[in-house]
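Session log. Operator J.P. requested a structure for one protein chain; no other inputs attached. Running the standard single-chain path with token output.
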Amino acid sequence: MIHVWIPFLPPSSNNIYIKRPGGGRMLSQKARTFKVRAMQTIQKEGGVAFLNLKEGVPYEMRLSVFFEAVENKGYPDKAKTKFKRIDIGNRLKLIEDTVSDALSLDDCHNFRIILEKHCDPKNPGLYIDVKEVTDNEVGLTKEQFDERHRLRHDQRHGAGAAALHDGVLLAR
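Structure written below.
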């Protein structure tokens, strides 16, 4: 497993690409700076964990992103929403590509990606965790996925607590 802290945040999707003269697009200076610094950190902090990465193996990537603030201070009097409009999903592709390049492991190996939003005013940044998952956890057919979901539900709520009806999990 790789567990790395990146002590800075990637730009949002609005600041990742710029138009290239003559057509197309390229990474902005902010995105390039993030990518280079993050790759250096991943390679330095990842250490010997790189030796355990294998081709042809499915991986899970967990991204725990820590923002300086996630709530609007003026809510409910001055702000319309409790939470700031911070979309962590629009940063995913840059992070995924950065991790892939740093680890020299194509992102086609990412079968599960978990995004988490957190708040730490003193420590904005992100944790990147990459771990191997077994073949029987990912790449499932819908039927296999539904069955696994049903079994997990039964384990949590007692056997017989749910039933599948036309592929839909129904509570009893």
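Operator note: Residues 2-134 form a domain with the 60s Ribosomal Protein L30; Chain: A; fold (CATH 3.30.1330.70).
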